[in-house]
Write a structure and sequence with these properties.
The chain is α/β, with parallel strands linked by helices and about 350 residues long. The protein is about 30% helix and about 20% strand. Helix 4 crosses helix 5, helix 5 crosses helix 7 and helix 7 runs parallel beside helix 8. The chain is globular and about 65 Å long.
């Protein structure tokens, strides 16, 4: 998908992602703050992140590498290693229950059953000394109380559901015997085994070729619709976001700088960083001689963030106020919010 023109609806074939359900949020994240203790000092990797996810909705979380996307996703399920990570503040409410107040045994019941995660690299996420089938059957026994025989049979069904040929043989294989695309399908089968309400997909197409990327994304969309899941899709690829998300949250230097329906992000972005990301998408109509636009400068170090807007030194619309006062997310109308003192015109 990377390097192609943005084309809405290429996955579903309908021209739009499936309509998300309205109503109360299934998942609500409030003022999430994560710090890392390092030799360079305390780094604010995630600083006041908040968003909502409704039933059946896909929220895309996008930004450059190091913006805090993966740390946010791991914090939601309390999978960060502490130390060095420390959740300093915030709440993660899943159906009104704050996951940060649960004991470890209660949290273990939530993971896999109510909320699941697809990790970036399946080769390092799957246990190399356990068969594929054993790893998928384990949560079925743990969370659903299935017998070993029933779990094995269900495992084969799940592998078939995610498009793995000869699923019975694949269940007996070890991860290293499968291709990258097949391992990613195994990760998806493992994540959906207990039909979770929320699926967190962290760069689910990383390191896969373009054809396999499209297959994996189509599979995720189909499974989401079939199971009624909500999905937090984390990626740096705006083409993926355009094809799959209902709403988009853009992260920069540990904060969400803009959040809006996908049509507004691509049609009328308000934050200069979002506009810069969109301008830098490679497009087929560009000539070989034309330069690909880029955002000047570099992301500031988390150890030395400016007191105002973290994007100020790279921003073409910066005001003097931007250097001293940090903007908060402000309503721009129609579910659109941006943290900018001088937003672009709609």
């Amino acid at each position: 998908m990377t390097g192609t023109a943005v084309a809405r609806g290429a996955i579903t074939g309908s021209g739009e992602p499936a309509q998300a359900a309205a109503g109360e949020p299934l998942l609500r994240v409030e003022d999430l703050q994560v710090r890392f203790r390092t030799a360079a000092g305390i780094l604010p990797a995630v600083d006041g992140v908040g968003f909502e996810l409704r039933s059946g909705e896909t929220l895309g979380l996008v930004g450059e590498s190091g913006s805090g996307k993966t740390v946010t996703s791991l914090a939601l399920l309390r999978l960060l290693e502490s130390p060095p990570a420390e959740i300093r503040a915030g709440r993660v409410l899943l159906e009104g229950r704050d996951l940060f107040t649960l004991g470890e045994r209660e949290m273990a019941d939530v993971r896999g059953r109510d909320a699941s995660m697809i990790f970036q690299e399946p080769m390092t996420s799957l246990n190399p000394v356990l068969s594929v089938g054993y790893q998928i059957a384990e949560p079925l026994v743990r969370h659903l109380g299935m017998s070993q025989a029933a779990a094995r049979a269900r495992t084969v069904e799940l592998l078939e559901q995610v498009g793995i040929p000869n699923p019975a043989r694949a269940a007996a294989d070890y991860p290293h015997r499968l291709s990258g695309g097949m391992r990613q399908r195994v990760m998806i089968a493992l994540a959906i085994a207990c039909k979770p309400k929320v699926l967190v997909a962290d760069e689910p197409t990383t390191a896969l070729d373009v054809t396999i990327q499209a297959q994996i994304l189509a599979l995720l969309v189909d499974l989401q619709q079939a199971l009624g899941m909500s999905m937090l899709l984390i990626t740096h690829d705006l083409a993926v976001i355009a094809e799959t998300a209902h709403r988009v949250a853009v992260m920069y230097a540990g904060r969400i700088v803009e959040i809006a329906p996908v049509e507004a992000i691509f049609g009328a972005p308000r934050h200069p960083y979002t506009k810069g990301l969109l301008r830098s998408i490679p497009r087929i109509e560009r000539t070989r001689e034309s330069m690909l636009p880029e955002i000047p400068g570099t992301v500031p170090s988390l150890a030395a963030l400016p007191p105002g807007c973290a994007f100020v030194d790279r921003c073409p619309r910066a005001l003097e106020r931007c250097r001293t006062d940090r903007p908060e997310l402000a309503a721009m109308g129609h579910g659109h919010r941006a943290s900018c003192w001088n937003p672009a015109d709609a």
